[in-house]
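Figure-free illustration: sequence to structure, shown twice.
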Amino acid sequence: MTTATNGTDGAAAITDALEATTLQELGKKVFIGNLSFATKEDHLRELFGKHGEISDVQIIHRGARSLGYGFVTFTTLEEAEKAVAATDKNEIDGRPTNVEIAKPAPEAAPAEPRGEKRTRRKGAPEGEPSQTLLFVANLPFTVTDAKLKELFGSYKVASAHVVCRKYGATVGRSKGFGFVDFDDHESQLKALEEVQGKELDGRALSLKFSLSD
């Protein structure tokens, strides 16, 4: 059975990084998930520097080892949004990345009441947070649908699906992220709280609410 080990240190590291976001940085800091352990900060600076002026680059580590995610801070909101639009799901060092505007830790987890519209920044994805579906990123490539469902076996899971490539020489290969659908909202919230940041085969999992149409 493939299980997730406690990633308390990794979760604390990413929380510290988000809590350190100042009001001046709000909306300018970009989260990059599913990074290769070999990716360096200089490489991120080079790649994301094509989309605007960068004030800071940080890859989260436990000791000397990368945890597979990091942050790039731009000098303007427009540059950050441009970078997200241009780079989300692009490959860096062989891994498809999850790129989004970082949110301060206190705002990242709570679900919004059903039926309420969010005030969105320009370029934000449309849709309301699903009441049962979670997006799971930073998955090892070896994780299958069955293993993903097994990972969340302590919760009421209706289905689990790992997104795979449909074209090219690597058809059928995992893209490193997937979706888990739960029987109810309570199970979804519990899984988000308890599995967020835990490690699976050395990779810290990144969970967030999936958006419904």
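We now fold a second protein in the same way, so the two outputs can be compared directly.
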Amino acid sequence: MQKSESERVVKVVPIPEDIYDKISEHADKEGLSVMGVTSRALLDYIDKHVDESPLKNARKDKIMHDL
């Protein structure tokens, strides 16, 4: 079965409650959601560890647009 453009795959990964609480505190200080903070952290990781490429930039632009 082929996915349409509007379908997304979401992977849910459980994290320990103490880590979630720390992320939540950080998010509250910045006026963001936990998902927003973790999404930004993922983008920062991609920026640091993935070589520059048009594909990387396109993905990053799409993620930022969806936030």
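Summary for the second example: The chain has one domain: 17-66.
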